[in-house]
Amino acid sequence: MKTLPVIVAVTGASGAPYARRLLQCLADQGVLAHVVASSAGRLVYRLETGKDIEEDLPDGTPLYDEDQFSAPIASGSFRTRGMVVVPCTMGTLAAIAHGLANNLIHRAADVCLKERRPLIVVPRETPLSLVHLKNMVAITEAGGLVLPPAPGFYHHPRCVDDLVEFIVGRILEHLGLTQEFMPAWQGL
């Protein structure tokens, strides 16, 4: 592996294809992912991809349950490139926004914020309530990045995979990694 690992948390919101493609891209770049999935995240992953998350992970990828507080990602002494919560439920977003550490996903996110490491949350909900918006502001004020899966269309997507890759490309850019899904906008 060529760089610090990335924590990828999968929660129970719709959007498992984003997580799946991100994990593939990290592996392709030689970046080890430490994956933590909630029980609802595992269920939705199976429903949306047709596979259990374990089936999609490269050999040697650490996979943690949400109650596994002894995992290395629960400590600030375990160095990472950052964390992506994709997809992110509004419950997880609220817990992160308010510094709760009820499970390993929340704790790992809290560690990223306190250690000033990148934290990217990809909330998958619509429409958004005022509570959701305030929680997004709180995460942003704490140093996290809210990256809604709202794809652009200037790259002329031809299929759903193109839309997924647009979002995954943005995630990779914010982790400081390369992406080749879409060229940078050059203007008209």
The run of helices and strands is: EHEHHEEHHEHEH
Overall structural class, as computed from helix and strand content, comes to alpha/beta
Strand content: 5-15%
Residue-averaged pLDDT: 95
Number of strands: 6
* CATH class division: Alpha Beta
Categorize the overall geometry. globular
Count up the domains: 1
Number of helices: 7
Annotated CATH architecture: 3-Layer(aba) Sandwich
Domain Flavoprotein: 6-175
Keywords: Flavoprotein, FMN, Prenyltransferase, Transferase
Organism: Desulfosoma caldarium
Pfam family, one: Flavoprotein
Q: What secondary-structure arrangement, pairings included, does this model have?
A:
Elements lengths: L5 E5 L5 H13 L4 E5 L1 H11 L3 H4 L6 E3 L16 E7 L1 H8 L6 H11 L4 E5 L6 H12 L3 E2 L13 H15 L14
Helix pairs in contact: 1-7, 4-6
Can you offer a commentary on this structure?
The protein is α/β, with parallel strands linked by helices and 188 residues long. It has one domain: Flavin prenyltransferase-like (Rossmann fold, 3-Layer(aba) Sandwich). 39% of the residues lie in helices and 14% in strands. The protein is built from seven helices and six strands; from the N terminus they run E-H-E-H-H-E-E-H-H-E-H-E-H. The protein has helices at 16-28, 39-49, 53-56, 90-97, 104-114, 130-141, 160-174; strands spanning 6-10, 33-37, 63-65, 82-88, 119-123, 145-146. Strands 3-2-1-4-5-6 form a six-stranded parallel β-sheet, sandwiched between helices. Helix 6 (130-141) links the parallel strand 5 and strand 6 (145-146). The longest helix is centred in the last third of the chain and has 15 residues, at 160-174. The protein starts with 5 loop residues before the first strand and ends in a 14-residue tail after the last helix. The relative contact order is 0.17.
